[in-house]
TrEMBL record, chain A:
It is a multi-pass membrane protein. SUPFAM superfamilies: MetI-like. InterPro entries: MetI-like, MetI-like_sf. Belongs to the binding-protein-dependent transport system permease family. This is Carbohydrate ABC transporter permease. It comes from the Bacteria. The lineage of its organism: Bacteria, Bacillati, Actinomycetota, Actinomycetes, Micromonosporales. Its main location: membrane. The chain crosses the membrane at residues 14-35, 77-101, 108-130, 142-160, 197-220, 246-264. Pfam families: BPD_transp_1. It is found in: Cell membrane.
TrEMBL record, chain B:
CDD domains: TM_PBP2. InterPro entries: MetI-like (IPR000515), MetI-like_sf (IPR035906), UgpAE/MalFG_permease (IPR050809). Residues 1-35 are annotated as: Disordered. It is a multi-pass membrane protein. Residues 100-312 form the ABC transmembrane type-1 domain. Pfam families: BPD_transp_1. The chain crosses the membrane at residues 39-67, 100-125, 137-158, 186-208, 248-271, 291-312. This is Sugar ABC transporter permease.
Length: 278, 332
């Protein structure tokens, strides 16, 4: 390597860093503005939107002391976990059959589920609402959980089916020789082997449920069932003039998602890229 | 001894190595060897998924199709049959037609701005660069935030008199605070927030695809005298084709159903200038209780997605190894 080549390389890498930092700033600055804004009062926000808070006002503590935020957090969590268990369970069973049995109508059924990928949730929301009202599931967490699970089926089935296909037939053969029935093989052999794939689809399902807004918005008129997205939106409506307080609420509602991302980044990205590659 | 040989035969014809449909031979071999209660096993394993899917995904869409033929407020059974009037009404309604036009603009914007930027950043992060894992982590982070959170944050960022936008506009001497209130800029402002949240997803998809391409290919091109741009244009870009086509697809389908972001940022206003199909549907269905009319809008959304998906599958994705949308095949 000559000196000019390495200098050119260094210039290049400096330019790349500058671009990356600029893009990173576009992402970090609004969030940082929110985080700092939560420590200001509204007067400071208008005189000093960008700077350091002075004095520090703790809007966060006020929200954390109030039960509403915790209640919404709990609702989001309950709904996300239950939806995920249901969708992953039902999809794993179906994917098992689709991956390892040949039967008449299989391709039709697989295509049917695959078409579900193209249904925008918004298309079904009205009749779903009428249906849920008829079943008495409004203001009931099941009214959100079950439809979410149903709409999560296509992607979950597709990812799991592909994974199940990679498990060699010999494994099933050995299990059968050991006296496992279909259910025993599925439960004791296949699912434990599929742990990475199950983690991936679970992470996708949790994030989808956590961020869902339209369904809980129409299903829950009773505030005590509101999830975080519905709560954040309502909070903004209620305290429209108190920007600092709303900022604090938004930032708090971001934390669980960002924390989850930090922990499950690999599964999330693996799932998204994997599902698109097919 | 017969059993293992059958299994290994089956494995040769196994869909895992031979997508998408197993040959009839496979089925015959299975058939020759009926398992005890095989039909029962199938029924038990398929029942939960099928029940959920048919009841909560397929049935609502059929119901929407039916309801769209009635003037119906959503209570009781639809009785006032009006044929296709809801559809003719929609297509003569300037708001609805505007929704289609705005959807088109959003798609075009995302094709000429969002996806190229995501692609460029993916190529950038594919370079050896210290700290690129951190950049990647940050660029993708907005994707995990909900659309609602993002939208509320940006409402406040641009809120008149207090927001960050206000500070920036004071600094720039322009008025950034009013972007969501001005009919001329609102749609672009919405687009920017949508891109803020989603470009990381596309970047990640491109990056994964780029890393699946052997380095030797573009290196060989450079050795043969191609410039870096030529190597990208004629070697890397074509190999990224399948991922780019899928990204375009995801972006179009996402735009057709865009709701949360718009609803929270602008509610569709001012004077419908940022309204989307889903917002119009929500307004009529849940605010004005014109459920029949709103159902017709739902069905238009559905048909747009369906027609686009089928067209895309036929015409654009045909050359990719398998249909990844109606993904029946196990290409990995």
């Amino acid at each position: 390597m000559t000196a000019t080549a390495s200098r050119a390389q260094r210039t290049r890498s400096v330019v790349l860093h500058i671009v990356c930092i600029a893009v990173g700033a576009l992402i970090v600055v609004p969030v940082w503005f929110g985080v700092l804004g939560g420590f200001k009062d509204n007067g400071q926000l208008s005189t000093n939107p960008l700077g350091w808070p002075d004095p520090w006002v703790n809007n966060y503590l006020e929200i954390l002391k109030n039960g509403v935020f915790w209640r919404q957090l709990g609702n989001s969590l309950l709904i996300a976990v239950t939806s995920t268990v249901i969708v992953v369970g039902a999809a794993a069973m179906a994917a098992f059959v689709f991956a390892r049995y040949a039967f008449r109508g299989r391709e039709f059924l697989v295509t049917l589920f695959a078409i579900g990928l193209m249904f925008p949730f918004a298309v079904a929301i009205l009749p779903l609402f009428v249906l849920l009202r008829g079943m008495g599931l409004l203001d009931n967490p099941l009214g959100v959980i079950l439809p979410q699970a149903a709409f999560g089926l296509p992607i979950t089935i597709i990812i799991l089916r592909q994974f199940f296909r990679t498990i060699p037939a010999e494994v099933e053969e050995a299990a059968v020789l050991d006296g496992c029935g279909s259910f025993g093989f599925f439960w004791k052999v296949l699912l434990p082997m599929a742990r990475p794939a199950l983690a991936t689809v679970s992470v996708l399902a949790i994030v989808t449920s956590w961020n869902n807004f339209m369904l809980p918005l129409v299903v829950f008129s009773d505030q005590s069932w509101w999830t975080l997205p519905v709560g954040v939106q309502a909070f903004q409506g209620m305290y429209a003039d108190d920007t600092a307080r709303v900022l604090a609420y938004v930032v708090l509602s971001m934390l669980p998602a960002l924390g989850f991302y930090a922990v499950a980044e690999r599964q999330l990205i693996g799932g998204l890229t994997g599902s698109v590659k097919g | 001894m017969t059993r293992p040989s059958t299994v290994s035969e089956m494995r040769r014809g196994d869909p895992a190595t031979d997508p998408p449909a197993p040959g009839p031979g496979t089925a015959r071999q299975r058939g020759r060897q009926p398992r005890p209660g095989r039909a029962g096993v199938l029924a038990v394993f398929l029942a939960p998924a099928l029940a959920l899917f048919v009841l909560l995904v397929l049935a609502p869409i059929v119901v929407a199709g039916y309801a769209s033929l009635f003037k119906w407020n959503g209570f009781g059974l639809p009785e006032n049959f009006i044929g296709l009037d809801n559809y003719t009404r929609a297509f003569s309604d300037p708001t609805f037609r505007g929704d289609l036009w705005r959807g088109f603009i959003l798609v075009v914007l995302s094709l000429v701005v969002q996806l190229p930027v995501a692609l460029a950043l993916a190529m950038l992060l594919n370079q050896p660069l210290r700290g690129r894992a951190i950049y990647r982590l940050i660029f993708f982070a907005p994707y995990v935030l909900s659309e609602v959170t993002t939208a509320v944050l940006f409402t406040l960022v641009f809120s008149p008199n207090r927001g960050l936008g206000e500070g920036v506009s004071r600094w720039l001497g322009a008025d950034a605070g009013a972007v969501f209130a001005d009919p001329d800029t609102v749609l672009f402002a919405v687009f920017l927030v949508v891109s803020w949240k989603y470009f990381g997803l596309y970047m990640m998809l491109f990056l994964a695809a780029r890393q699946g391409i052997p380095k030797e290919l573009s290196e060989a091109a450079v050795t043969d005298g191609a410039t870096a741009w030529q190597a990208f244009r004629h070697v890397t870009l074509p190999l990224l084709g399948p991922t780019i086509r899928i990204s375009v697809f995801l972006s179009v389908i996402g735009t057709i159903q865009l709701f949360d972001m718009v609803w929270v940022l602008t509610g569709g206003g001012p004077i419908h200038t940022s309204e989307t199909l889903a917002v119009t549907m929500y307004q009529f269905g849940f605010r004005r209780f014109e459920v029949g009319y709103a159902s017709a809008i739902s069905i238009v959304m559905f048909l747009l997605s369906l027609v686009f998906a089928l067209f895309y599958q036929r015409v654009v994705l045909r050359r990719d190894t398998a249909g990844a949308i109606t993904n029946q095949g196990g290409q990995r």
